[in-house]
Design brief:
alpha+beta; 3-stranded antiparallel beta sheet; 3 helices; about 30% helix; elongated; HYC_CC_PP; Secreted protein; signal; DUF8199
Length: about 130
């Protein structure tokens, strides 16, 4: 069970290390108003229009880009040396032998029911195994 949990955790780690996403934050003054992941942060409604750009706005947007790993190493079977290829093929062949099914065995007395005991002979004859 621990092996399965560990395998799932490592595969999730590899998967999430390749994701890239952005985190947008909208500040009004020094106060954080909105945080958005994968979308645009909503404003507080106090943004200055472009024609009044002479005055400094109290609102500020910050964008944090978290880039994932894009240089994963991928190997093909041909990239291995000949000895390694031979080992992998022989290991997989010998391991696959364990999963071959056995021939179905026939049990001839499967449906046989023993006769009913009328008398217990051991008690009648007082013969007991010690």
């Amino acid at each position: 069970m621990i092996h399965k949990i560990f395998s799932i955790a490592l595969s999730a780690l590899v998967l999430f290390s390749t994701f890239s996403f952005t985190v947008e934050k909208h500040y009004c003054g020094n106060r954080l108003v909105d945080v958005a992941v994968f979308s645009e942060a909503k404003g507080c409604g106090m943004e200055m229009p472009l024609k009044n750009s002479m005055k400094k706005s109290c609102c500020k947007d910050t964008i944090d880009v978290i880039e994932g790993q894009d240089e994963l190493q991928s190997l093909s079977f041909d990239d291995f040396e000949l000895e390694t290829q031979e080992f992998i093929v022989s290991f997989l062949y010998s391991f696959s032998v364990f999963y071959e099914s056995l021939p179905k065995q026939i049990v001839p007395h499967k449906d046989y029911s023993p006769p009913n005991l009328v008398y217990d002979i051991q008690l009648l004859d007082d013969v007991f195994l010690i």
